[in-house]
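Lay summary

Proteins are chains of building blocks that fold into shapes. Our project writes down both the chain and a compact code for its shape. Here are two examples, one after the other.
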Amino acid sequence: MKTLALKELTLSHFRSHKRVALTLDARPMVLFGPNGAGKTNIVEAISLLSPGRGLRRAGADDLTRRPEALGWKITAILQSLHQTHELETWAEVGSPRQLRIDGKTAPQVALGRVARILWLVPSMDRLWIEGAEGRRRFLDRATLSFEPTHAEAVLTYEKAMRERNRLLKDMVRDPHWYTAIEAQMADSATAIQRNRRHAIDELTAAQKVAQTAFPTAALALTSAEPIPDDLQTALADNRSRDMAAGRTLIGPHRADLDAVFADKGVPAKDCSTGEQKALLISLILANGRALANDFGAPPLLLLDEVAAHLDATRRAALYDEICALGAQAFMTGTGPELFTELGPRAQYAEVTETDGQSAVTQKDKP
């Protein structure tokens, strides 16, 4: 199996970290330390080496260290298959995020061509019991890992939909204002639905072939209202109803990801907290296995507070699966005892905080 791994990571004035410089190998990395020390800030920085706004969906100005507010920068050396890339992303105060790959300015979507990054964060523990938006975002992250152009299709669709919604709110009735916008929405929607279904198929196949301690989730793409094959015609026919609502009522922006604990036949939303967490981990691992075949290397995994709601047996099983997959996983936890089962299979760093200053100390063992 080929390798996808960070070899070096440097943060400058990012969140609580004035400066962090890590030298890494391809093993999993454990970041341990007290709550509030800055562990999640490090995995958030790594998440910004993929397209989008990262695991906290923060704006560029929110990422800069206070009180200096000088802007921030992340630099990484990434081994991707048989190539090595230098990645730089940064933002000055009041300016949008910028990116260079190997010294050349690049759009964010280009990150999806050199790396694949998946994450699991505590806020996702409520994924199955909260609104459809979070599940849709989760599915789109998985979809993006298989098809980097998915982000472009989603952005194009959402931009066109915002324009259409403005027309609806302004009570514009002239069809000429809508035709081009609705055609663009329909074209993008076709790609979005195709990409999402492909991702679900990949996740389903990867779960079926795995021997794992984590439960299998039966997945389905659903929608508040059925999305017709001819969306452009449906949007035109639906203008009066949408105008009364002040927004577009049909389309992939109303899709949902349905999951059922397969062995029990119980919807994920009705499972216990531990089962819901196990289902999430199962999907992340399935995504990783599928990408190892699709991309040629397992993805980087960002697993924030991953040991929460897992007993010792499941923790050990998770670590065994990560190591068998060969993924460079960045895992956080409050104490090294949560990662005892990993032993020398991982690298370690202690994250501490004193007087508002975070510090990171790499260690040979926890």
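And here is the second example, written the same way.
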Amino acid sequence: MSASTFFTRDDRGRFLPTAVAHSRWGPDALNGPALCAVAACAVESEHSAPGWRPARFTVELFKSARTLPTTVTTEVQRAGGRIRVITFRIQQDDGAEQTLVAQGVTVFLKESTNPPGARWSPPESARTFFPPDVPADDAAPRFGGPDGWGRSLADQQHAHRHRLWSEPIPVAPDIALTPFQRAVITAESTSLMTNWGEGGIGFINCDLTVALSRLPEGPRIGVEADGHDESDGISVGTATLYDARGRFGTGLVTAVENSRAFIDFSTDVRPPGWTPQA
């Protein structure tokens, strides 16, 4: 696994963005996976409990986050017998004031047994996501398109279905990466996989919802675009999440036109350790 992390921490416990947390949308912007990572980490570390599963994570990315000290606060909204609802707020400190850059909710559900009877789900014969063979010591992401899997972002700038097979990086050096964090970090690529087209990406997502039936297994997670709808500068994208065992959840994003900062991956090369998300 790469030694890179999205953040380090100062002596006050604040998260300090690293180079791999930077976004292509601007020189002082943070990428979505970094914000999702720090939120998922805070919620899970403060509110997880045996027998309870984080089943839904939703974050509203309503203000561009910058390369500033970052903190996350959480609050219990409901603690029921089968459902627990936790809200979180991501704030940044510019030295003069605290600015709210994102907020959201995580829903924990009580684990039990499935009800009797069969229900429809997509058959294995309909599966279209088959991850590539990647050496265990190779943490580089793989991008899938009509011509198979590869490492190059530039080779995938087309209007066909997009796929990603990726090993997410930890939030910070002193924080172990958990399956829930892996799922949330990688699921942020729902926006990339569904809004990526000819010439690059011109939609920026303003939210992410991740729904999980189970937690992923193994270090790598896949994202496969399922749907993209756009009208009047607004898009909706949906994707299915996979691990080596199979599908385990979905991602949903809404996005707004951002052509003034259009990202052409063929002309922008990032150093090793960069995460593939915009």
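What can we say about the second shape? Helices lie at 32-47, 179-187, 190-195.
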